[in-house]
Design brief:
Number of strands: 13
Radius of gyration: 18 Å
Number of helices: 4
Distance between the termini: 22 Å
Order of helices and strands: HEEHHHEEEEEEEEEEE
Length: about 325
């Protein structure tokens, strides 16, 4: 999970420990650890997920039968945080079996993790039954999710907590794809924690950025060999960028609202389909979500957690 070596930690320096707006992510070896924002993009794809036949593509909007997004308020950067909209629409998702409430952050320690320091793993079980993400995280549901680089997307950490890219992956238009360690049996909904990030020096002011996000799920046909996919397009997802690394939003949707049967899903991918970033520097230069172009500024999706709460696996 989010265990790190002293060697890699030493490469981060003081700046990386203090902020994760414009920093880099952890990857095996010394990749994705430098100060170059563009080079921190995660865009790994298993070869077998490329060119897969897509069976359906459904576009969802920010509404009760579409997708939920953070607080449900997006007027200013500080509005974009938490899970209040999902809780309003689906209150039972955020309750324990005894009816007690789950929280975005623990009301006593004010955090979604028990933080022993950057890269230092701590037992999070005291937060079970209190913090939503720790209670519902995939590594608790299925221990197979605790292995590998992407395990940091499955361990219940929905905010930066000064961990920089030890807690997240940075995505652009190309996105990433992955196989799950098990085959999905049942799940009511899919969710993720995210915010925006840009390689501009905003001085903590930030802005609201609108993303188009493609989420694609993969499964095998009856022959057990041929992969097919179903795509969900989340249109106009509003998140804050460069305001605060701790202001992340829970975004997601019910599988039934997307017309998808989750049984048999073996992997997923996520990419940016569109970007509306009003940022401009003093010379009128804007920002792009295609990290491969020659623009000065780039805006990406900082993905911190992927959740399939209360799911069962084969």
């Amino acid at each position: 999970m989010k265990k790190t070596s002293r060697l890699i930690l030493s490469c981060l320096g003081v700046f990386f420990l203090a902020s994760c707006t414009d920093t880099s992510e952890l990857y095996p070896g010394n990749a994705y650890v430098g100060q170059d924002f563009i080079a921190n993009r995660y865009h790994e794809w298993p070869a077998s997920l490329k060119g897969v036949t897509n069976l359906t593509s459904v576009t969802l909007h920010n509404e009760q039968t579409g997708y939920f997004n953070g607080s449900g308020k997006h007027d200013t950067p500080r509005d974009n945080r938490g899970f209040d909209q999902a809780k309003e629409w689906h209150p039972n998702w955020f309750k324990n079996p005894d009816g007690t409430q789950l929280y975005w952050v623990d009301p006593v320690i004010g955090s979604d993790i028990i933080n022993g320091g950057v890269g230092e793993y701590r037992d999070q079980s005291p937060l079970y039954g209190t913090v939503y993400s720790q209670t519902k995280k995939l590594t608790r549901i299925n221990s197979a999710f605790s292995k590998g680089y992407l395990s940091k997307l499955y361990n219940g950490q929905v905010r930066c907590n000064a961990w920089s890219y030890y807690s997240m992956v940075l995505l652009d238009k190309e996105g990433y794809g992955t196989f799950f360690p098990s085959e999905l049996n049942t799940a009511e909904y899919f969710a993720f924690s995210a915010r925006g990030g840009r390689n501009s020096n905003d001085g903590g002011v930030g802005n609201v950025v609108t993303f188009g996000i493609n989420v694609t799920f993969y499964r095998y046909k009856e022959d057990g060999k041929t992969l097919v996919s179903n795509t969900v397009v989340l249109e106009d997802v509003q998140l804050q960028a460069n305001y605060s690394s701790e202001f992340t939003s829970l975004v997601g949707f019910k599988f039934s609202d997307a017309g998808i049967n989750p049984k048999g899903i073996v992997g997923m991918s996520m990419s940016l389909a569109a970007l509306n970033d009003p940022y401009q520097d003093g010379e009128g230069r804007g920002s792009s979500c295609d990290f491969s172009d020659n623009e000065t500024y780039h805006t990406g999706l900082c993905l911190l957690e992927v959740l399939l709460p209360d799911s069962t696996w084969f």
